[in-house]
Amino acid sequence: MFPNSIQEEYLSTSIRSYFNYIKKKIKKKTETKFAKDGKITDEMIEQIVSKEIEEHYEDWDRAKNIPSIPKTFNKNIIKKYKIIIKKIIEEVFEKLPISKNHLNKLREISGSLFSKFPDNIQNYTISGVVIAGFGEKEAFPSLKAFHVEGIVINKLKFEERVSSKIDYDTSASIVPFAQSEMVYTFMEGVDPFYKNIEESYLDSMISKYTETIVDNVKINIDKKNKLKEKLLDISNKIIKIYIKKMNDIRKEKYVNPIISVVSMLPKDELAAMAESLVNLTSFKRKVTTERETVGGPIDVAVISKGDGFIWIKRKHYFKKELNPQFFENYYKEV
Fold it and tell me: Could you report the per-residue pLDDT of 235-253, keeping only the tens digit for each?
């Protein structure tokens, strides 16, 4: 299904896309510097380019190869596709001043693109695969979710991202995927984006408040710096205590009551709840200016130990009455 030509095309597209992302950041920082200083020199551009490449290299270098990829894989990519990587670097960065050292780091980034998943770098080409159900000897269900990206040198880039299982200690679990913000809002009583903004703003506000207090105290510079460092350390501890306290409240007042009820719901009501949560996301997308990435009829299925896989609702891309042969063949195979 994935001949060498397709794998090579995927590699070229991925490297070019990421290098263009680096170039855009370089351009933005150059424009900001020019707007601030009213001038830009070759030396300034070189510093911006070097710093940007260095930061991206460090992000990828810190990340470890995913377990399914051998340690030598990165070097194999750089060696096998050396000409392609060189051509892309020349086409993307054109006449930007890049040292030999940073050229090597761009090559190493090229290899890492197909073997690592850095935590702080988002990739919108990732797809997800979720596997849920029972093993033959399992009394309780379990779930594993994977990020899957692409294939290079016949190696699939994938990583397990989420796992959940029901046992004697965990009676129920609700795990959302893809557009998950409405599920989290329903479960925790607050929009996750709003929560992150609030925590970030509070952290910033307390840090600035601390600096303002120290700056207005009439003591020498050394004492000011020591006092500022001490107060910032205290502020960070206060923020951590606040975040933990809020998380505990959300868990106690919102999450745990829902989970306790879910653990006792019959199968038909579990299916109805799952569909309602997806409908929440669909409705939110419909009444806001966001893209409608969720919508239309929803497929609903229940997997149980006794009955196996059961469709509750299922849509087809064709009319059932016009295609009786499909169902004849389907049931014949079953």
Answer: 888 889 999 999 999 999 9
